Fold this protein.
Amino acid sequence: MSTVAAAHDDHDHHHAPTGLKRWLFSTNHKDIGTLYLWFSFAMFLAGGFMAMIIRAELIEPGMQFVDPEFFNQMTTVHGLTMVFGAVMPGFVGLANWMIPLMIGAPDMALPRMNNWSFWILPFAFAILLSSVLLSAFGHGNPSAPNFGWTFYAPLSTKYGPASTDLFILSVHMMGISSIMGAINVIVTVFNLRAPGMTLMKMPLFVWTWLITAFLLIAVMPVLAGAVTMMLTDRHFGTSFFDAAGGGDPVLFQHVFWFFGHPEVYIMILPAFGIVSAIIPTFARKQLFGYASMVYATASIALLSFVVWAHHMFTVGMPLAGTLFFMYMTMLISVPTGVKVFNWVATMWRGSMTFELPMKWAITFVILFTCGGLSGLMLAITPVDFQYHDTYFVVAHFHYVLVSGAVFTMFAAAYYWLPKWSGVMPSKLLGELHFWNSLISVNLLFFPMHFVGLAGMPRRYADYALQFADYNFWISIGGFWFGLSQLFFLAVCLQCALKKGEKAEAKPWDGAEGLEWEVPSPAPFHTFDTPPVVK
Amino acid sequence: MQSTLFHRMAVGLTSLMISGLATASDWAERSDHNLRPGVTAVAQEVHGLHNTVLWIVSIIGLLVFGLILISVIRHRRSKHPTPATFHENIFLEVLWTIIPFIILIAMAVPATRVLIELDDTADSELTVKVTGYRWRWGYEYLTYQDDNDVGVSFISSLATPPEQYQNPVLSGGLFPYGTAKDRVGAPSQDKDHNYMLEVDNPLVIPSGQKVRFLVTSDDVIHSFWIPDFGGKKDAIPGFVNETWALVPEGQEGTYYGQCAELCGKNHAFMPIEVKVVSQSEFQEWLAQRKEEAAAAPDLTPFENLEAAMAAGEKVYASQCALCHGQNGEGGIGLPFAGDDFAIKPEHREEHIHVVLEGRNAMPAFKGQLTPKDIAAVITYERNAWGNDSGDLIQPEDVHEEE
């Protein structure tokens, strides 16, 4: 067995693929991980550009730059691009790179499927974004999807633009990609762990991703069902979401949020795993409450299936239903709180240093907690009747998604870039990126709480005068935050071009885990012979 | 329905408010950073609940952030070189599971109470059906006290003139904005105090009486939201939702709201304005509206094309321009300028029919506009922007079609 493995090993090393073929036909988890990460960053910049257009229009009352129709297209495609193009593929990229390294596996279990699940994505987004290009530059400006990323029927069915069908196709493709990625993670974790790597020894990032993968498999088909029903409503005479034919527009919202709420956790659970890796490293102290972290993650995942209707308290549900969803939603704050307390306890009486990954991780804990606390406020249904669909909600989910999920991806990048590229990320660029992002993200999202409470509805292209002052500062924060990400682009290029200080195999003295036992940069093939975990 | 009369009323009201006479109703001055205290009892309870919850989460947040701050200051390597080795503590872990649970119960109890109160729409004295249209609100008074057939209805549209919100700065190119003429050199007007909140025909309700709103929609989902009344309710096509408000006596004034569910292009352009008046004033107003509704429609013909065009231009700007474009260039709705539909004689009857009965996304205007207004606007559409069909539609033509 070992001789066969060694011979095979040699063979591969002599024929390391190069050029375009290396990326197009790659079955290597590291290369595919890199592809995912670059794709995610490209989508982050594209979605960010759309956000800049939104903020430019909202910088003062009145319609100045785009018409309300194009504004709606921007809010819609910004949301879709960030959720399905930036955050989800970003975490899949991290999973690809890190899970095999963390559990001592030579690669993902299903490498060809891995290739396919990545290469679907550029086509899916080419389809979606082509509708935006047509809308901006095409003859007659045919509308891109303009019904919000939540695409509520009948706005997206009977009243949807022709490009809705492009959107449906691209969502199907993204869903297939996600499901394949999830299957790959589950199969890899269950089958390719190194000897001695029991489930309860796995790094928390692997645990959170394993649970995320089950969530993905459970809910992506539901999303596929929702868009398929849309498609048949639009073209084949069904009336799932049309009361005139015996259907119900609210059914759409139930189906969508049955996907949509677990989706929220799909976008944050891997972030929990990353922070649980970084904080112990730089506090030089073992993670507090490993087992309770695993159980808390699992309970959050399970609860995520019984809270979906808190997104739709205003649709007029029966009192009993409303109460059920309110109580369940409030309950989620218990396991989430456990996680935050565990991170704080990990830092407590540690021996902390504040390298870039740690800065991002601590920022995550604080700002994610802000988002979590406003989430608890939103759970209180009678008050949610006021908060619902205002900028308060926009503030809440950007705190958990941007300063939550996206910031942990930055943390992960600064933490593992030495391993990926073999060079240390530039401290100067990294500090500039961090401090600019930290200040601007709060200038951008914190005042949204105020305008939301004061009564500014979300997805508004124009607004009443008392919202004007805060909106000006929000826009300034937006442009600042957007520009700050160019520092990160510079960091990525610096590492990709291997400029800078060489990284050791274990550049962080407090780090633990199998990924630090391979050289930096990690060789093309690692753990051909599984390590033994004690 | 004499929408012109009401337009005048609204304009008068608006100018009153700009001059600062209607201080009780000054929506814009009230709050720009926190939840509005509300005017109904239940809205004030919601506001109280909001404050309680805000305090609780702020204290929790400050505790957590304080611990992090202490840790960051005192447990840094330069101050605390040797890390502790503890990594679990059953007592602590149980404690910080139980305590949040107790806090949650403390929040759930008042929340449940307020929710049950909000849900109780029984014993109302006035019932108003609220219908969301793209992009205006329709109000139909169904019952008032013993009167089970009030039969008063009207449409309420944004009154802020386009000159105030159309301030394009791009001179053409990248993003579509109206016609090329719109893009260049459109004057940027100062904005009125109630910019994007004022409407032509406000909803009128009495103070001191419970009002039940039956909320529904004619097209996509909208959401009927008046923050001072304590919350929003979605307007869903094909379904009827209920909500209610009881504005106490002494709190008469104008209250504003906005559509709170994305409903398409002009989602931001369909505000809600509610005029709360005393019961006697309301009864007077209602009687007047009933009289107008019962009267035979004004079918006096237009003297000439110019008269009809002048009347039609006003109706077009307030009722049609949102979808069909300020200059008939189209948008969500069909273009009129240079289009056969609005020029060729064979489409004349069809044109009247579509305005009355609606078609696809186009709402039916029968009963919402007078035959005279409909005749005027169709005449306008068939003659403006170089269409020059010469068709003069008379109120009688529209009335026959009805």
